[in-house]
Structure formats: C-alpha cells, structure tokens
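Hi R.,

Here's the chain you asked about this morning:
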Amino acid sequence: MTPAARLSAAIELIDTIDAQRVPAAKALKEWGTAHRYAGSGDRAAIAGLVWDVLRRRASSAWLMEADTPRARVLGMLRLERGMDTETISNLCHGERFAPEPLSAAERTALTSRSLSDAPPHIAGDYPEWLDGHLAEVFGEDRVAEATAMASRAPLDLRINTLKANREKMLPRLSHLGAQPTPWSAIGLRIELGADARNPGIHAEEDFIKGAVEVQDEGSQLAALLSAAKPGEQVIDLCAGAGGKTLALAAMMQGKGRLIATDHDKRQLAPIHERLSRAGIHNADVRTPKGDADPLADIHASADLVVIDAPCTGTGTWRRNPDAKWRMRPGALEVRLTDQAEVLDRAAALVKPGGRIAYITCSVLPPENGAQVRSFVARHPEFSVVPPEQTASVLWDKAEDFAKAALETSEGWLMTPRRTGTDGFFVSVLKKA
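And here is the predicted structure, written out as tokens:
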C-alpha cells in the first residue's frame, strides 16, 4: 500500500470507530481481517495513524475547524507528525486509493491556524470535565503534561533478577534496540517510531525462558518503592495478571511468603503461567471462590500489603488513547469507592510496624493524595512514610528521581513529561 492509501484507510477506520462506537483495537483487527492484502507493515502504519488521531482528537479538530474523521486525520499529520501543508497535499492527490485533494479551507487551516488560543482541554487533548482535576495537580503545566501523556509510549522490559541481570540481557536484546531505562536498574527500553511495529518480544528466547517481562518503567519503580524484602510476608491485594507480583517475587529473592489475589478472578487467570515461566516458587495465588474471603486466615500479620488500586487509568493514556474519550465522571466516583474499600481491607491485614504501598496508574488528585488523606483520617494508626525516605531504594538515582517526579505530602507522582514513564502515584503508609 502507498502512504496515500494508508491515509485513506486511516480515515475509513476513524469513521468506523465514530459510527459504530467500537474500541480502536477491535476496529483495527476487523479491518485487517477484511483486508488480507495489507501486509504487516501496512497494518502497523495504519494503526499508528489511527492511534495518533485518537491521541490528538480534540486539537486536530480545533486546528481544522471541523470535527470529521478526515479533518482529524489531516490535523494530526500537522500537529503530531509535524508535516507541512505541501507534504500533506502531496498525500491527498485524489488518485488511486488516495484521499481527495485539500480544499481551500483545509489548506488555509493547515497553513495559518495553531493551538495558541485553544482552551487547555483542547490543546492538551483531554475531556473538558477533567480540566479542574488536572489544573489542581499540574496548574499551568497541565497542557504540557497532557501533551506528553498523548505521546506514543516505548516498550519497557523488566529483567527477572531470579534468572538474569541487565548486563547479560543488553547484548542479547540489542537487535531490538534495547537500552537501559533511565531510573530502574532492572529495566530495558525499546523506543518505537510512529509507524513501527511492536517487536515480537513474546517470541524471544529470553522472554519464553522467563528472563524478561514486559513492564513499564513506572510500574517497575512503583514495585521498587514498596521496598519488599526477602523473608517478609507480602500480599499483592490487586494482583491482576501478575505484573507487580512477579516484580515483588524477584525483590524477595524467592524468600518469604508472597500471596497474590484479586477481587476479579478473571484478571488472575494469566498469573499462573507467568509465575511458572519466571521460576517463582514462593507465591501463593488465592483465587476468590464465591463470597468466601480468600484471605480469611490473615489477621494483622503482613509486613507489606501492595495495592495496585483499581483506578481511572489516566496515567496510561499513552497506551490507551481512545480510553480517555470514553471516560465519564461516573467512572471516577465508582473507582473512588473501590479504592476506599480495598484500603480499608488492607488495613486489617497489616501487622504493627508493617506497611501498605498504595499505587495507582492515575494522575487525578481524588484517586491519589485525597484518597490517602481520607484513609489516614479513618485509620489514624497509619501514617505516610515521607516520600524522600521511600525514594532511597533507588540508590544512586534517588536524588535525580526526587528532582524529576512530583513530590506531594502523600507520595510520588510520575508522569510521561517528568519521568518518561506512564503516570503512576505511589504512597507508602506505615502502621504504628
């Protein structure tokens, strides 16, 4: 397929997503099935265009003064891909499978309009109802922060230190362009261009043998900030598919007791195979059965309870750009209730002197600092561990991390703009 034909396909797909209100991933998969002639490179390039349009949905429509699939695609080429008017015009020549030529209005918009007078939620590409929340945490920087949250994320890997180390893995994964992550001493990063296909990491020998796992560096740091230690009793209360469970197990060096559970047993399904591949033998997976409490035998005995809390996922917009446009205010209220319930549950599991690591992949204050303050008000036996103390686990990177991340009274907030990671909030609470 020519670049112009790919552009036409992207316009068609955006129209389908709008008209049928389907997730982008589903629309892309169905398009690929229906267009077998499109090679893997074509599909990757078209997917890149579609995801970039979703990242720049509001600003592209503003730039073009039209909220149509074609307008958003053209605006994205200018704003995200940095193309000038003539380059875009050369793609839209109207010949075989190419988009129709630019109209006079389109050419004027591409040439003369900018985002200089756009409202913050337009320039930053996020739902308007979130503006107050983002202003609370980022102030005048919210457009810059949100713009970074709309960029394409790299592929980050975590070294499984039970089987390997970074020095060994770097040359073995050099063919993928892997480089050390900036903060995590056990991470590798593979940068991805706009049209790049995700490397087939799951087919790599080192992945199959459990030496590496896919995990954003922010998630790696969140696990490290929990400071799980060998010999401790650690509970991963919202384990899901097990990403942080695997990281915690490696930190514990296979020593101690690690219990993984989740309210939604469907989320736990992949964890068993992942634990086996990683060579982890000290993890006890407790799948809920009916209304029975899988942790009924645990009474104030845990050294550490890790809560990877259910949240709005605003910190993962780089990876799920269409999710932010489907998000509604009611979803935030539901998550706040879920978070309070899981925090209260964790409080009863922690022994005196033990701690809770509360983690969200959100940048919204109600889910982060406000949630922690409410918890401490309900449970005065807990207090926030000063963030500068928790960062000490990052060793030689602690000082630089403290300068980069946003420190609050309740914990650390990582963002794509500040730390180059997904958006993560981490607060550590200690029980008296």
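One quick note: The first strand starts at residue 155 and ends at 159.

Cheers,
M.
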